[in-house]
Design goal:
This is F-box protein. The structure is a single chain. With about 500 residues, this protein is of the alpha+beta class. It folds into two domains: about 180 residues, no CATH class; about 240 residues, Cupin (Jelly Rolls). It contains 24 helices and 19 strands. The protein has a seven-stranded mixed β-sheet with strand order 3-4-15-10-17-8-7, with no helix packed on it. A four-stranded mixed β-sheet has the order 1-2-13-12. It has a four-stranded antiparallel β-sheet with strand order 9-16-11-14, with no helix packed on it. Helix 8 runs parallel beside helix 9. The longest helix has 16 residues. The protein is globular, with a radius of gyration of 25 Å.
């Protein structure tokens, strides 16, 4: 089934979101095939609790299997039917809520398109910056906040089915929100796991060679590991608001949202100021001993954002990216579990297309979509990705420059920090002085001058350190270069080797 899906990918429009581009690839497959037995290796399984598509949208493949049908999507759009679904939704995304409401009355097709949940999600996130109370759907959430006296129950649970409406783009959005993770996506676990190793062993075997490792038992003494469940955090944090995408939300409100929502890309609570907002949160964890050298600390209050509390429901996560400012990172799971997929710096993940300057990345719209359409390709790669499931109490080390994707397999709470040690200091300084640093550097207001500030602070705090690290790096580079005779002879057999 997966191979057929790959052959039927449709072209799409890339959508820019800040410095990241995402691309949609839709699959022409029948719903019947999707819900076949779980032991069918080529099929996909829908969650048992999944509702049918709100408006009865079917994948385009069903139209091909039913030649007597016509696509009501086209008849209801008139001359606009020639536009792709992606382009049509891009245009609708320029409209306000009133215009969408009026347009929904024009035809059944416009009704389906104007009720597409991501349109209303964008309206909520763009207009309700003070936070929101999720009402079961993004449209009802927007209407309830904008028109408090309006009964939103019909909006949240209503909507009529449209017969013979076929759209891969709209169907796949529903599919990705309701698809079970396939067992084969979870079974590969090839990360190195270590317990109780020394700092020296960590540096020698993992940080110096820039290799991932999963560390067990190094956060067993955290108060967070014992205390951080929903009830405790809601009581502790009270009315404090945390960063959730572009909005700020109280923790209780976020949990209401995460319980009710069923969407392709759930919002992720990802806050860099959590310890300043609620100091006790910062008191209940400590940096594992392996990561305590953090040279960005010389900048004091001017250092870029470096630590985050992360909370999200099953299906939430981060699509493929490289951590900011060429830093390394560690991620500790406190509750729940996370699936990790990591590629080394010289291997770009399939389906991911970074721009030449690294300022933008085109990738599938959602994490599930990447697994559906691209994960299978990695089976035949010589350089296979590093994969694992990181569970509560475990910490993963993410080396500088590694591409990584993370998806929560259940509701999860984690702490992550980015850091600079002597092992990656030169890489960070090189990154910060790139010609386009103003577009690449993140987590600080002064992107242009960060290099000079950081270098000067390092030289003041650790005189001669940069020069010594540079000399060591030069010696390593010299050792890597083959001598003339090494390059023309085969040391194993003593004969000349011709390489014309």
């Amino acid at each position: 089934m997966r191979s057929m899906a790959m052959r039927n990918l449709l072209s799409s429009v890339s959508v820019k979101r800040k410095t990241k581009k995402r691309m949609r690839k839709c699959t022409s497959i029948t719903k019947h095939r999707l819900v076949e037995e779980e032991d069918d290796e080529e099929g996909f399984s829908i969650k048992s609790s999944a509702p049918s598509h709100t408006h009865g949208v079917q994948p385009l493949g069903n139209l091909y299997l039913n030649p007597a049908s016509t696509n009501s999507r086209d008849t209801g759009l008139g001359n606009l039917h020639t536009l792709s679904d992606e382009l049509l939704l891009d245009i609708l995304g320029l409209l306000d809520s009133t215009s969408l409401g009026v347009l929904a009355t024009v035809s059944k097709s416009f009704y389906v398109f104007t009720n597409h949940e991501p349109l209303w999600k964008n309206l909520v996130l763009e207009n309700l910056l003070g936070g929101f109370h999720f009402k079961g759907s993004w449209k009802s959430t927007y209407v309830a906040a904008s028109y408090p006296s309006f009964d939103t129950s019909a909006v949240a649970h209503g909507g009529f089915k449209v017969r013979d409406f076929y759209s891969d783009y709209l169907f796949q959005s529903w599919l990705c929100a309701n698809l079970e993770m396939k067992p084969e996506w979870l079974e590969r676990d090839n990360v190195v796991r270590k317990r109780g190793i020394s700092v020296q062993e960590f540096v020698l075997n993992f940080e110096e060679p820039n290799k991932p490792v999963l560390l067990e038992g190094c956060i067993d003494n955290w108060g967070a590991l014992r205390n951080w469940d929903r009830d405790y955090l809601v009581r502790l944090c009270g009315d404090v608001k945390f960063s959730v995408g572009p909005v700020e939300m109280k923790l209780g409100d976020y949990f209401v949202y995460s319980d009710k929502v069923r969407e392709e890309r759930p919002l992720y609570l990802f806050d860099p100021k959590f310890a300043e907002k609620v100091p006790k949160l910062g008191d209940e964890y400590e940096v594992p001993v392996y990561f305590r050298e953090d040279l960005f600390g010389v900048l004091g209050s001017e250092r870029p954002d470096y630590r985050w509390i992360i909370i999200g429901p099953a299906g939430s996560g981060s699509s493929f990216h490289v951590d900011p400012n060429s830093t390394s990172a560690w991620n500790a799971v406190i509750k729940g579990s996370k699936k990790w997929v990591l590629f080394p710096p010289d291997v770009i993940p399939p389906g991911v297309h970074p721009s030449p300057d690294g300022a933008e990345v085109a990738s599938p719209v959602s994490i599930i979509e990447w697994f559906m359409n691209f994960y299978g390709a990695t089976k035949n790669w010589k350089k296979k990705p590093i994969e694992c499931i990181c569970k509560a109490g475990e910490v993963i080390f993410v080396p500088s420059g590694w591409w990584h994707l993370v998806i929560n397999l259940e509701e999860s709470i984690a702490i992550t920090q980015n850091y600079v040690s002597r092992r990656n200091l030169l890489n960070v300084l090189d990154f910060l002085k790139r010609p386009n640093a103003s577009t690449l550097v993140s987590g600080t207001r002064d992107r242009v001058n960060l290099h000079d500030k950081f270098k000067n602070a390092i030289e003041a705090s650790f005189p001669g350190e940069i020069d010594e690290l540079t000399r060591k790096e030069d010696r390593k580079n010299q050792q890597r270069k083959l001598s003339f005779w090494d390059s023309v002879t085969d040391a194993n057999v003593g004969a000349f080797k011709f390489s014309f």
